[in-house]
Amino acid sequence: MGTQTEGEVSLHGEMNTLIRRSKPDRSQRIRNVVQWLFVALNGWLGVRFFLWVSYFERGGEGLYVPRPAGAEGWLPIAGLMNFKYFLLTGLVPSIHPAAMFLFVAFLLMSLILKKAFCAWLCPVGTLSELLWKLGRKIFGRNLHLPRWADLSLRGMKYLLLTFFVFVIGTMSVEALQSFMSTPYGLIADVKMLNFFRDMGDTAMIVIALLVLSSMLVQNFWCRYLCPYGALMGLVSLLSPVKIRRDAEACIDCGKCARACPAGLPVDRLMQIRSAECSACMVCVAACPAQNALQFSLPPRRAAAPAQRWFSRALGPLAVTGILAYIFFGLILFARATNHWQTNIPRAVYMNLVPHANEVTHPGM
Ligand code: SF4
Ligand code: SF4
User: Fold this and answer.
1) Whose CA is nearest to atom 6 of ligand 2?
2) Which of 42, 139, 310, 339 has the fewest Cβ atoms within 10 angstroms?
3) Which residues have any ligand 1 atom within 6 Å of their CB?
4) Is 310:296 a contact under the CB 8 Å cutoff?
5) In whole angstroms, what separates CA 242 from the centre of its chain?
């Protein structure tokens, strides 16, 4: 396609645009619905968790709301520790097991569908996307950092990930078990809530800087700082489903690359292997050429050339279905096997929750 003249590119582009108009791309609408449903789910979990904590803070007076185990999705470090414990012992940990099931669900999603967790489910990813779109509206555009700065900053999330993996990787089974049984481990979720409730000046300034950076640079937090996203990205390198480009159908317009929030050169590659690809399908939505770009499984060797990979493409509904299958499948499995809830006696919570701010990390 690189030898097309400008006139040919334009004619080809117009023809494909006409074809595309008869079949509008729904991927971004569907993805946005999934994202905001997940934000709503997290909001609902947050409110229920807050009510549960308030009950103990009031000394057991008033409305009691059962503790929503799903709030443990906000404990990725506990999820990683528990997963290691499970791998070494074959036992499901009794404290924060939901953190582990959710952690495994998000790993599985990344293994199958690239970093789809980040662009389809993670509420922080959704907020980041909202912020850079807002920033683009206010300032007219987003900033693109020079390549050296971009690469160095991207390394930070891997450094943070290395730190957590090293610390947890060097812990023995006994150390993992005893950490989770400390007061800090037992109410790590309450500590997390209190961090947001009683934010100090420093934390507020850091968050304000992150918000501003996220308005200026697309997905600032996810791209440079999130160790969870870094882990999902590394796992996603094994994903068989990738963004793939058909050079025959491509009209070399470059719209995919210009639209990609991860700044990937989609228009120059045959498939996107990068750990930065979040399967957001923005490139697919931006592509004016029919079937030039798809989120698909690898080509089948025996298939006829025209059907090679597009017969194996995944549309947004299929992506939604797979994400829902993994997410709800693991939750239902954990519930059915009685491993979803952390079963700590109420008296322990009654003792710890009102004094959560005095409970310190065992390493301090
Ligand atoms: S390559 Fe496509 S799917 Fe991947 S991050 Fe860029 S726009 Fe999203
Ligand atoms: S794959 Fe990219 S460069 Fe090719 S037609 Fe689609 S948007 Fe244009």
Assistant:
1) 287
2) 139
3) 243, 260, 262, 264, 266, 272, 277-283
4) yes
5) 16
For residue 146, what are the contacts with CB-CB under 8 A and spacing of at least 6? none
Are 218 and 126 contacting, i.e. CB atoms less than 8 angstroms apart? no
Give the position of tokens 């934390």. 203
* Amino acid at the residue 133: K
Picking from 355, 286, 251, the residue whose alpha carbon sits closest to that of residue 28 is 286
Average pLDDT for the chain: 91
User: Is any ligand 2 atom within 6 A of the Cβ of residue 253?
Assistant: yes
**Nearest Cα to Cα of residue 106 among 125, 133, 91:** 125
pTM of the model: 0.89
Residues 208 and 275: their CA atoms lie apart, in Å, by 27
Q: Which residue has 């582009």 as its token pair?
A: 13
301-328 confidence digits (pLDDT tens): 655 555 554 458 999 999 999 999 999 9
**223 touches ligand 2 (CB under 6 Å):** no
Give distance in angstroms: CA of 343 to centre of ligand 1.
Answer: 41
Q: What is the whole-number distance in angstroms between the Cα of residue 152 and the centre of ligand 1?
A: 21
